[in-house]
Amino acid sequence: MFASYLMYCDMCKLRGWPCKGCRSFISGLDSGGFGGGFDGGFGGGSGGGFGGGAKAAYEVTGTRGQYGGSVFGNKKETMQNLNDRLANYLDKVNALEAANAELERKIKEWYDKQPTTSDGGKDYSKYYSLIDELNLKITNATKDNAGITLQADNARLAADDFNNKYENERALYQMMDNDINGLRRVVDDFTLSKFDLESQFEGLFEEMVFIKKKHDDEIKGTQNTKLSQVSVEMKAQPGTDLTKILNDMRAQHEALAEKNRREAEDLYNTMTAELRQQISAGAGQMQASKTEISERKRTLQALETDLHSKLSMKQSLELMLAETEGIYCMKLSRIQVTISSIEEHLAQLKADSESQHSQYQQLLGIKTRLEQEIETYRRLLDGEGSKQTRDQGQGRGSGSERNSSVDKDVAGLGSIDSGGGRTIRIKKTVENILDGKVVSMEEGVQKL
């Protein structure tokens, strides 16, 4: 079929349809050169397809006078169909080759535009310096922020420490004020006791003075009475010595007053000493308690300050850890997005490569089949041309007509019988060819 297309004239190639002369020439080639030049009227047909095989059969349809002429309609339609199919295939092959070339050109242009590295990915080297600079700025800003946060935390902790110290001093002041008030109450109680003892001492002293005065008055009265008495001497027993009695009474009263005074002084001194001892012991114990409380408070303040500093350091470290995690999460997400885009790009390239490979394989198969069919048609044309030359030479010598197969010569010999008539023997050979190989062959001889 392709060989027939090659035998068209220029006008037929332009319009895609053979003219009458081209059809007659191709029909003469297909019929082995005996399509209308002899009275035998032998016609031939050939058929082929793009499935990879070819079949040729030459049938005797009868002489012009005996069988009514040759039939060429089916052969022309077959050739037309084959020519159309070949033209369509060639157009499709050309279109696919053009599309493949255009796609390869676009891929090459795209690869030329996209800067690539040694590992086949995108070239991000020009962004590395900018990324490093931005990372350095982010790190410095993070450090500055952390420093400011730490200073703010330290200032807040210092304020809290001063507030705690103020509260502690205020509580200590209140406690000392309460202790002073308590001591004032004790001093007031001691003062009241002193006043009571002084009042008792004054009362006892006044009583002693009154008794002493009364005693003096009695002594004076007794002396006056003694002076005013008349001396009367009587012989009687001596009476009681009143002076002696009064002196004794006076001595007793003085001794009793001195005893009471000493007892009051001793009682006052004893009570005062006991109170002083209690006050000194309470003051020492209170001072020791105050000292211990102050030590405990200082220890508590130091521990609270250490605790606040540790808590602030923990918070600052947690903030820095969260910021670092956020930064690295952002970097990881950007890297994952880049990896995903690269994987999608690689998958797209792989799909495009597989599609191009499949299209290339299809085109290669079509090209191979077309080359096989072209080779088959070439062999057919070469065989038919050689057979046509030999058959024409033999036909001129013997005046006989013969038909040929695809690649075998048909030995058609004419002879004259004993009666002076003409006898024609026709050898018919049918070969089935698949992928350029002869599958089966049938031969037959017919006498006319």
UniProtKB/TrEMBL annotation:
Start and end residues of each stretch annotated as Disordered: 380-414
Pfam families: Filament
Bias-annotated ranges (Basic and acidic residues): 380-390
A single BP term in Gene Ontology: intermediate filament organization
One Gene Ontology MF term: structural constituent of skin epidermis
Keywords recorded for this protein, A-Z: Coiled coil, Intermediate filament
Stretches assigned to coiled coil: 72-113, 246-306, 332-380
Domain IF rod: 75-388
Matches recorded under InterPro entries: IF_conserved, IF_rod_dom, Keratin_I
GO cellular component, one term: keratin filament
UniProt family annotation: Belongs to the intermediate filament family.
Protein's name according to its UniProt entry: Keratin-3, type I cytoskeletal 51 kDa
Annotated source species: Xenopus tropicalis (Western clawed frog)
Upper lineage: Eukaryota, Metazoa, Chordata, Craniata, Vertebrata
The encoding gene: krt54
